[in-house]
Amino acid sequence: MEEIFGREGLIARAHPEYEYRPGQIQMxxxxxxxxxxxxxxxxxxxxxxxxxxxYLVPAVAAALGRGARVVISTGTKNLQEQLxxxxxxxxxxxxxxxxxxxxxxxxxxxxxxxxxKRAENAPVxxxxxxxxxxxxxxxxxRESQTGxxxxxxxxxxxxxxxxxxxxxxxxxxxxxxxxxxxxxxTRMRQRAQDADIIIVNHHLFFADLALRGGEYGQVIPDxxxxxxxxxxxxxxxxxxxxxxxxxxxxxxxLLRDLQLLPINxxxxxxxxxxxxxRVSRFADNFWLGFKEGRGEDGRAPILPGTFARRxxxxxxxxxxxxxxxxxxxxxxxxxETTLDALRDKPPEVDNLIRRVRELRFALEFIVAGDDxxxxxxxxxxxxxxxxxxxxxxxxxxxxxxxxxxxxxxxxTSATLASxxxxxFIRRRLGLADMDEQGEPNPLADKTNELxxxxxxxYQKQAVLYLPSKMPDPRSPQWTEAAADEVIRxxxxxxGRAFVLSTSVSGMRALYERVAARVDYPCFVQGDASKSWLxxxxxxxPNAVLFATASFWQGVDVRGAQLSCVIIDKLPFAxxxxxxxxxxxRFIEDxxxxxxxxxxxxxxxxxxxxGLGRLIRSTTDRGVLSVLDPRLRTQAYGRMFLNxxxxxxxxxxxxxxxxxxxxxxxxxxxxxxxxxxxxxSALASPDFEL
Length: 689
Known about the structure:
Elements: H1 2-5, H2 10-14, H3 22-37, E1 40-45, H4 51-66, E2 70-74, H5 77-94, E3 101-103, H6 113-119, H7 128-143, H8 184-193, E4 197-201, H9 202-211, E5 225-229, H10 234-241, E6 244-247, H11 248-259, H12 266-288, E7 299-301, E8 308-310, E9 316-318, H13 320-340, H14 347-368, E10 374-381, E11 384-391, H15 395-403, E12 408-413, H16 423-429, H17 442-445, E13 447-452, H18 458-461, E14 462-465, H19 478-493, E15 497-500, H20 504-514, E16 522-524, H21 530-539, E17 544-547, E18 564-567, H22 578-589, H23 594-611, E19 622-626, H24 630-633, H25 637-643, E20 648-650, H26 653-659, H27 661-664, H28 675-683
Helix pairs in contact: 3-4, 4-5, 9-10, 11-12, 11-14, 12-13, 13-14, 19-20, 22-23
């Protein structure tokens, strides 16, 4: 690793802006040892460590040396693209041994040639614009080598008809498809089959892991090791794909594909039309039963008694919604029977039968709601309504399907530790000392740890500003006080800030109160796409961006354009969220403290992600501000502070202004302080705000 990452190493000779980073070498050596010893590894590598190359180089060496491909799973498609367009080509030029790499996304990102042909004569377009867009997509699909919708840069980000022509698993005919050989999924998998390194994202990885061994589901070729970048996300992603889901879109797609069956027998078509009509009618009645009840993010629990209740004599009585389910299931069963009875069935019929059976099974599981290992909930997204059953604890599933079966799994992120320890991530992912039965966990000893030091000097590059007079975040005075404080900070930093909120309502409230009272261009999440907002922010001097969860991670704005990150509240997970509430109950029922074992460490990791947007290079500098007074007033606040980068802490805006004094050429004596005395006080371990 020293020969590659050292001051005179391969990378230093090939990259004119290369910086020697001891933490990068430590991480690369730890990853290399994990491959050699066939162990797992947890690495927190803060911003500035150079973690991407630190895991890529050992991964290449392991893939070539062991002859077993390595999968690298990222948290976002943006990071996938960075690896494939920047980091991988660089290493292919620099490293002495040649290697190959392939890029795989989820199936929904790719066009299906067969579905495009069928859509040419189907009513899938919603307006005149869609007609032109569809013609462009059809022409593009004939010429594209990948079928990846990311190539359609000139078309709107959201195409209403895309879900009718994508290559999702449930509509795939597999090898029975007449377009199997030229299929974009087939070609993608062939490229991956020939590669030493495969770049995927977490959603594809866990969708594949949940379906491995199935006829239609598996996409990723077999592998010998996995590296998870942004590994703090994988619990939530795994829970999504190890559960069950039914949506109104699934039924709509099923009925539309039924209409497109290539069957010429008029009597059969008439019977199928009647079957489809029954399903459509009963499905509409079923979904109407969920018109009430939703949280801010469209998520709500499915409560006991939703579908059936116990009478005083202990008999079970179906509710109105339960009766609606029974009618829908009966209609689906009749459709399945009708399809199964067809003679000389085309492959599309077998596909529909499989989909009906899977839909009925998932719906029955969710309606029964009697497996205590799952949480049952609904989610609304636009016109879509999704019923879900998610495993409350994925640790045993990950032990069985991942850590026991793959020789080396590397988990890395800039935020995995809480107060310098990995206890939280170990418990959540199944790598703790004890398993869920209270037995010693052999995986614990097979998993090493490392906190790789950052190359940034946070003492010089950053100030953490904690306002001294803020009301409780739950009080009626909070929003106005927070807006006033944001304005004061922005006037000192001259904009150039992210204002990150823990909720959409909080974000909108701050934006509405602040934007009209500052002289800086203000943007707010939701008014345009994320990529457009970021581009405008980077290009607009003194801009301010108000945003929420999706901007807390995976966003990179370097230089003075982003000199301030303001976070309104400590990012505790919403306790009314059905999945969060179920996880908390699970911990409490086992005799633990859900607040200290789940809520606090998860919030610490999220806060570190938000603050990690600020310092992205050795020349960056700026102010981090958390408006929530609980960071100072509550005992657990010290756990948060101990987990943050070791920057200076202040409750005086004068100290914030001093950070920019040279840049703004501020001469006012108001900002001239006795530096030695102040630095000494701030450095003291007993320093109190």
